[in-house]
Amino acid sequence: MPDLLSLLTSLAWPLAIALAWLAGEFGQRWTGLPRISFYGLVGFALGSTQIGALPAPDMGPVSLLANVAFGLILFELGNRINLRWLVNNPWIGVAGLVEAALTFILVYLVATAFGTGRLTALLMAALSMATSPATVVRVVNEQKSSGQMTERVLHLSAQNCVLSVFAFNAIIGIWLFRTYAAVGEALWQSLVMLAGSIVAGAIFGVVTPSLLRAIRNPQQDSTVAFALAVILLVALCDSIGLSPVVAALAFGLTVRYRRVAFTQTQRNFGALGEVLTVLLFVYAASTLDWRLVTAGAALAISVVLVRMFAKVAGVTAFAHLSGVTWRKGALTGLGLAPLAVFVILLLEHARYAGLKVVEELYAMAAVTMLLEVFGPIIIQRALIWAREAPETSHAA
Amino acid sequence: MPLEAFTPSQPLTFGVELELQLVSLSDFNLTAASPDLMHLLKRKPFPGNVTPEITESMIEINSSVHTAYEPLLAELLEIRDTLVAASDVLNIGIAGGGTHPFQHWSDQRISAKPRYEYLSQLYGYLAKQFTVFGQHVHIGCANGDDALYLLHALNRYLPHFIALSASSPYVQGHDSLFESARLNSVFAFPMSGRAPFTLTWQEFTDVYFAKMERTNIIKSMKDFYWDLRPKPEYGTIELRVCDTPLTVERAAALAGYLQALCRHLLERKEEAPVEDDYLVYNYNRFQACRFGLDGSITHPKTYENVPMREDILATLEKMLPHAEALGSVEALRHLAAAAHDGSDAAILRRHVEREGSVEGMVNAAIAHFRGGRAA
Predict the structure, then answer these.
(1) With bands split at pLDDT 50, 70 and 90, how would you rate the model's confidence at A220?
(2) Which residues lie across from B110 on neighbouring strands?
(3) Could you give the 3-state DSSP secondary structure of residue A363?
(4) Best mutation target, B82, B90, B126, B353, to test chain A (most A CBs within 10 A)
(5) In angstroms, what is the C-alpha Rg of chain B?
(6) E strands within A245-290?
(7) Among A132, A170, A373, B8, which residue carries the largest CB count within 10 Å?
(8) HEC string for B130-161
(9) Which of B132, B134, B130, B128 is closest to B110 using CA atoms?
């Protein structure tokens, strides 16, 4: 008979996922708040440094599954991105650049005002530019929202991710070279990494639809085929040092231009995607340490507020020029609040790449925890206020 | 409240209404974009008029009142270009076609307008299933009696308009095997079908409408979803059987054909309509919906069975003198070519075959609406 401890250990993840799912279902029913907020709360509570039901994060199978889940969501996001829109209506791209740059500057200033080291402040600023695509895509799908705010938040979150991955890697590069003289070299390497990831994703985006056409069954088999391709791509990028985030985005984007559209019934990659999403959000929150969260609380609250201000101001400023009301512009900025999962996975990657500097980003732990719970709520409310989602998600 | 008097209007003036699909360019499904589009269009003058429809993934545009085909076509093209420019700013596709091939009715959102909310309450899921897209053509009439005469005299030609505009072969992801599946959705409404056989406006209002009003089912003419209905406030009859074609050129041509036909019928050289004409009406209508140009038509007076295409081409030929008088020969030529080459429904089916998916077909429909330019 196996001893009780090892039995409980092996059951930890399946039980945590089941518990989180239940919390999400009941929580959503009782409060109307997004399910993923509850997944995050359960994950955080069960984390190794809190109740300790879940083991400390490592690069084991759960981490890989979380990365796959994230890859699937990014593929779906990429599939919804229309680059031609950014050409037809350049003010959207400009708003994104301004909002991201403003976020970078303001977060850096706030972090240094709190006495954070220069490099750590730069990394925080780079991470704060991002908008978590996992949260955005999940809430948009859960709310069945559609309209300009929905479209713009999706496009801006993709743009923000690429900018953030680029800036984060560039700064890490500078840290590795230990000298600011190497800025050019670091930027170049970060660009090469981005380009490599885009090429990898694009190759998958050309090959997979061609295979599907060869099978002559693009409608039925596409979910399974795309899921398998994403798993392969994520694992590949992981092992050769490319960004799975950018690659999965590029994959989705290329598939879109091959006109093998992702049909409604396959949103979230069906049941497989649902299960992996629960795991992703539980895993992300379980990596957080409550001591770090509380230690960085004051700075975190300031960063969250200043980040929100920068995003709302940056997007609102270009609302009229880009063809929507001021109100919808402001709500779009608010909808860019989610951050958590993206940052956690990026940090986990950096940590396992052996970058100790990540440990100093304690305030980011608090920022991510705050936004893991509140990010989905903020974007959900913003979508409802923009009248792009029905008040109850159950309405037929 | 008794039915209002029939406002006289200049005979044979005409105008077009088109219900259009608002499509997401990410997945080619319908998207609830009408509030955003309406906001953007309000910012600069719009040729004609644009209004929200029952669900937020549709809009309706209408032309001004015209006397001739050329200016009508010019206005529709200008409306089309304005819409296309706005849709580029908002990342949506705009398309004709009588149905969206794979939208799910339950995903549609009812527009926030009291009448639509009332209809949704009354008709339940039928209201959302009414996410179908039609073209309406109004023809001005000098008085109510002329309107009712035209309305009934047109019964024999109505299948032509169904077959020539048919562009709704796909429903809920599958080929319906109908050329126009849209009209089946309209038929679900209790007040759809044909108008009662009355040839004088006085009888229509004092007897029929007064009785219907007493039943409390009907409050205004808006509550009827007839294939052809009088519109007393505009002084027109309104043809409602057409699917929205893939292009505004086809829409203008259909209006030109109806105008010429009405001119011909008002000469009253054809045998007058009688109630018995309607014996074959529903079957002819079915033939046009199911088989389109390849269907057949049973003549209501002679019971002779004629191939639809032949009947259309012969009628177009017969209408040429009227078209010359009205300046719409081009419209008839356009339709004759369409009758030879095949309907929009046939074009859509070809796209599904070529692209391998219904999403590819929607993409092609968007390109057709834009005049062949890529979205």
Answers:
(1) low
(2) B55
(3) helix
(4) B90
(5) 20
(6) none
(7) A132
(8) CCCCEEEEEEECCCHHHHHHHHHHHHHCHHHH
(9) B128
With contact defined as beta carbons under 8 Å apart, do B66 and B258 qualify?
Answer: no
> Contact A85/B91, CB-based, under 8 Å?
yes
Q: What's the whole-model pTM score?
A: 0.86
Distance of CA B139 to the CA centre of its chain: 13
From the list B40, B357, B375, the residue facing A260 with the nearest CB is B357
Q: Is the pLDDT of residue A8 over 50?
A: yes
* Angstrom distance (rounded) from CA B33 to CA A85: 15
Exposed, middle or buried, A216 (CB in 10 Å: 0-12/13-18/19+)? Answer: exposed
Q: What's the Cα-to-Cα distance from A79 to each of A55, A249, B31, B363, rounded to whole Å?
A: 35, 8, 16, 15
Of A109, A98, A126, A172, the closest CA to residue A343 belongs to A126
Residues of A in contact with B24 (CB under 8 A): 146, 151
Residue A335 has pLDDT above 80, yes or no: yes
B309/B337 Cα distance (integer angstroms): 11
CA dist B262 and B267 (Å) reads: 9
- Tokens standing for B201? 């406006």
Listed in sequence order, the residues at least 6 apart from A32 whose beta carbon sits closer than 8 Å to its beta carbon are A392
Task: Record the tokens describing residue A175, joined without a space.
Answer: 């840290």
Q: Minimal Cα–Cα distance from A160 to chain B, Å?
A: 19
Assess contact for B360 and B354: CB atoms under 8 A.
yes
Query: Which two structure tokens, joined as six digits, stand for B17?
Result: 């209404």
Identity of the residue numbered B67: T
**Nearest Cα residue to A131 out of A332, A359, A293:** A332
Contact B35 A387 (CB under 8 A): yes
Helix (H) or strand (E) holding B10: none
Tokens standing for residue A143: 């709310």
Percent of chain A with pLDDT over 90: 35
* CA–CA dist A323, A329 (Å, integer): 9
Q: Which residues does chain A have within 8 Å of residue B40's beta carbon, measured at their own beta carbons?
A: 323-324
**What distance in Å separates residue B364's CA from the closest CA in chain A?**
11
Question: For residue range A192-212, what is the model confidence (pLDDT) as tens digits?
Answer: 888 999 999 999 998 888 887
Q: Do B39 and A325 touch (CB under 8 A)?
A: yes
Residue with tokens 């089912």: B217
Which one, of A299, A298, A288, lies nearest residue A373 by Cα?
A: A288
The arithmetic mean of pLDDT across residues B227-239, rounded, is 95
Contact in structure between A58 and A119 (CB atoms under 8 Å): no
**Do A323 and B89 count as a contact with CB atoms less than 8 A apart?**
yes
Give the separation between CA A328 and CA A153, rounded to whole angstroms.
Answer: 11
At a CB cut-off of 8 Å and minimum separation 6, what does A146 contact? A388, B24, B31, B32, B33
A80 and B40 in contact by Cβ < 8 A?
no
Per-residue confidence (pLDDT) for residue A265, from 0 to 100: 44
Contact A344, A4 (CB under 8 A): no
- CA A106 vs. chain centroid, Å, equals 21
The strand pair at B296-298 and B305-307 is best described as: antiparallel
Q: Computed from CA positions of residues A95, A101, A104, A108, in that sequence, does the dihedral angle turn out positive or negative?
A: negative
User: Per-residue pLDDT tens for B267-304?
Assistant: 999 999 999 999 999 999 999 999 999 999 999 999 99
Q: Which residues pair with B37 in a beta bridge?
A: none
Question: Residue B116, Cα to own-chain centre: how many angstroms?
Answer: 20
